[in-house]
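TA notes, week 10

Several of you asked for a full example with nothing omitted. So below is the full record: structure tokens for the whole chain, then the designed sequence directly under it. When grading your own attempts, check the secondary structure regions first.
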């Protein structure tokens, strides 16, 4: 199955790419590497999850927000490259987690994104390098922002 078919089988449909909220583009291709801008948990024209992990948002909700964020990110990737099956490898994720100072489960939140990428792209193309970093605030009060790097054919 293609990554798009895998996502559909997992209950995720790729939306239209999120609109930019500044002077940037959703993705840039340089040679066979695609850099995808930071995305958040956006759905039906709005950010659907807001708050700080460890205070307003629990880990399962954070993981769901990370999964939704990856679906949005993949929509921008598809708009850039045409078909997700062109991805040779998920290279790197940067997962920013809006965290209470005492919260230390950023990697668990990031697993919501990583697990979905491995499920969509399989064990050969999906595993990736990753950083999961707690931050004091994110735009619009969202709990998670993710950017990614992909290698394409």
């Amino acid at each position: 199955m293609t990554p798009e078919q895998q996502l559909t089988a997992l209950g995720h449909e790729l939306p239209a790419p999120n609109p930019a909220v500044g002077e940037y583009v959703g993705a840039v291709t340089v040679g066979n590497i695609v850099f995808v801008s930071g995305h958040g948990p956006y759905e039906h024209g709005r950010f659907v999850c807001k708050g700080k992990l460890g205070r307003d948002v629990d880990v399962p909700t954070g993981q769901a927000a990370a999964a939704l964020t990856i679906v949005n990110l993949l929509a921008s990737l598809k708009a850039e490259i045409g078909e997700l099956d062109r991805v040779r490898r998920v290279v790197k994720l940067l997962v920013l987690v809006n965290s209470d100072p005492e919260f230390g489960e950023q990697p668990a939140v990031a697993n919501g994104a990583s697990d979905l990428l491995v499920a969509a792209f399989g064990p050969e193309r999906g595993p990736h390098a990753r950083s999961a970093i707690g931050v004091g605030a994110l735009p619009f009060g969202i709990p998670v922002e993710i950017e990614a790097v992909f290698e394409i054919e």
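The mean pLDDT is 96. Use that as a sanity check on your answer.
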